Task: inverse folding
C-alpha cells in the first residue's frame, strides 16, 4: 500500500492511495494518513488506484474524515472503482463522506 | 475441489490465507468479482475470530476450508472460540453525519452483502461459519 500527496489549487491536497486497503495496507499508511488529516483542511482522497477495501480500510477513512471535520475542514473520496464503491455504500460511508468521480467537482466540494 | 488451511490466531495470518485462496482461485479460473467477494469475506471472518479470542484450554488454530461444487463456492471457518453467531448480529445504523459515524462495526454487514449466503453452527466447542458464493 502506498500513499502520495499533491498540493493542488485553492489550498486543496490530493491524497493518492495505491494498492490494497486491507488490514496490512491500512496499518502501513495509518500514521501518514492521520497526520495529513490532522494538518490539512481540504482533502481529496483519490481511491482510483485502490484495488481492495475491507473494514480496516473503512475505519482509516472514517477516522481521518472525523479529524478533518472536527477542525471545520472538508474531505471527499474520488474515483473508486465499481466494487470499491459498492463496499463504501454497503457500509453507508457515502452518506458521511461524499464520493465524486470528477476531479474538478471533488476539488470544488472541499474548497473552503 | 476441496482445500484446507490451518492458521495461527494472528492478524498477519490473514495475508497467508489470502495468498492461499488466490492461488486456488487462479488455478480454478474464478471470476475477479468472485475473488474480491471471497477475499473481503475471509478477511472479515478471520479477523472477527481473532478479535473474539479463544476459550480457556481450547485449540488455538483456525481452520479454513474452500470447496467448489456445482457452480457454488463454499468457504468455512472453524475455531474454538467463545460461541458467536454473526448471522444474528444487528445491522449497523446508517450515520447521517461524519460526527456521528462509527469507524468500525461493518465487517459482518459486509459479509452479509458480499456472500450469497451465511450460515452458523455451534458444534461442541467449535464455531463454524459457512460462507456460500454463487460463481456468477
Result:
Amino acid at each position: 500500500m502506498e500513499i502520495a500527496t499533491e498540493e493542488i489549487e485553492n489550498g486543496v491536497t490530493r491524497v493518492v492511495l495505491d494498492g490494497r486497503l486491507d488490514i496490512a495496507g491500512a496499518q502501513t499508511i495509518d500514521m501518514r494518513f492521520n497526520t495529513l488529516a490532522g494538518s490539512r483542511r481540504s482533502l481529496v482522497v483519490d481511491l482510483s488506484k485502490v484495488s481492495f477495501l475491507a473494514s480496516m480500510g473503512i475505519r482509516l477513512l472514517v477516522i481521518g474524515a472525523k479529524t478533518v471535520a472536527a477542525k471545520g475542514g472538508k474531505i471527499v473520496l474520488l474515483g473508486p472503482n465499481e466494487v470499491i464503491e459498492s463496499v463504501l455504500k454497503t457500509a453507508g460511508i457515502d452518506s458521511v463522506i461524499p464520493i465524486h468521480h470528477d476531479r474538478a467537482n471533488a476539488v470544488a466540494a472541499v474548497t473552503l | 475441489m476441496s482445500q484446507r488451511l490451518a492458521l495461527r490466531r494472528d492478524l498477519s495470518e490473514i495475508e497467508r490465507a489470502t495468498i492461499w485462496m488466490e492461488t486456488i482461485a487462479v488455478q480454478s479460473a474464478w471470476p475477479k468479482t468472485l475473488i474480491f467477494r471471497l477475499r473481503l469475506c475471509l478477511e472479515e471472518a478471520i479477523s472477527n475470530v481473532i478479535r473474539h479470542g479463544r476459550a480457556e484450554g481450547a485449540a488455538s488454530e483456525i481452520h479454513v476450508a474452500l470447496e467448489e461444487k456445482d457452480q457454488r463456492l463454499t468457504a468455512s471457518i472453524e475455531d474454538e472460540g467463545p460461541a458467536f453467531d454473526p448471522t444474528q448480529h444487528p445491522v449497523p445504523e446508517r450515520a447521517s453525519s461524519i460526527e456521528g459515524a462509527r469507524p468500525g462495526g461493518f465487517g459482518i454487514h459486509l459479509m452479509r452483502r458480499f456472500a450469497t449466503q451465511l450460515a452458523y453452527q455451534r458444534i461442541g466447542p467449535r464455531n463454524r461459519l459457512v460462507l456460500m458464493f454463487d460463481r456468477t
In short: Chain B touches chain A through 30 residues (CB under 8 Å).
